[in-house]
Design goal:
- Belongs to the GTP cyclohydrolase I family. QueF type 1 subfamily.
- One of its GO terms (molecular function) is preQ1 synthase activity.
- InterPro entries: GTP-CH-I_C/QueF, NADPH_dep_7-cyano-7-deazaG_red, QueF, QueF_type1.
- This is NADPH-dependent 7-cyano-7-deazaguanine reductase.
- The strands form two sheets. The protein has a four-stranded antiparallel beta sheet with strand order 2-3-5-6, with helices on both faces. A two-stranded antiparallel ribbon has the order 1-4.
- It is flat.
- The chain is α+β, with helices and mostly antiparallel strands and about 170 residues long.
- The chain has one domain (about 30-155): GTP Cyclohydrolase I, domain 2.
- It has helices at about 80-90, 100-115, 145-155, and strands at about 35, 45-55, 65-75, 75-80, 115-125, 135-140.
- The chain starts with about 35 loop residues before the first strand and ends in an 11-residue tail after the last helix.
């Protein structure tokens, strides 16, 4: 039989395949789970697109909607996607500015995964006639990924992507 075995990180997962999923309505970083990266000898990107991300304005408590893009180059661990979905859902009643949300998400994933490189981009829909699209990134200090992060930060908006979620 091919594929990942139970002993290769699956035994620690509590959410995937669980029919009694509990949805947190408060910010819940503890829901994130990781498994071993079976391909840590090579660089590759993992990209998640969450077109239904919501959070609340910390002042008005009005909802903010975004497509959240998370891309990373894993090292020893990868995030389990159902736990990531539940984690992102936990922002639904969380009151923070757009810039805070993307940085909180990135910081939580760095803490969980210790990735080689990661970037998080929130494309928020306009409210009050203006949209805010915060983008942040990180590369492991002292490595080529730190240089990559610096380069991406300096050049990330030279060729703006087509905005298709508005």
């Amino acid at each position: 039989m091919s594929g990942r075995s139970h002993e290769e990180g699956l035994k620690d997962l509590t959410l995937l395949g669980n029919q009694n999923t509990k949805y947190s309505f408060q910010y819940a970083p503890e829901v994130l789970e990781a498994v071993d990266n079976m391909h840590s000898s090579r660089d590759y990107f993992v990209k998640f697109n969450c077109p239904e991300f919501t959070s609340l304005c910390p002042m008005t408590h009005q909802p903010d909607f975004a497509t959240m893009y998370i891309s990373y180059i894993p090292d020893k661990k990868i995030v389990e996607s159902k736990s990531l979905k539940l984690y992102l859902f936990s922002f639904r009643n969380h009151g923070d500015f757009h810039e805070d949300c993307v940085n909180i998400i990135m910081n939580d994933l760095i803490k969980l995964l210790d990735p080689r490189y990661i970037e998080v981009w929130g494309k928020f829909t306009p409210r009050g006639g203006i949209s805010i699209d915060p983008w942040c990134n990180y590369g492991k200090p002292g490595t080529k990924y730190e240089e990559m992060a610096d380069y991406r930060l300096m050049n990330h908006d030279l060729n703006p992507e087509k905005i298709d979620n508005r």
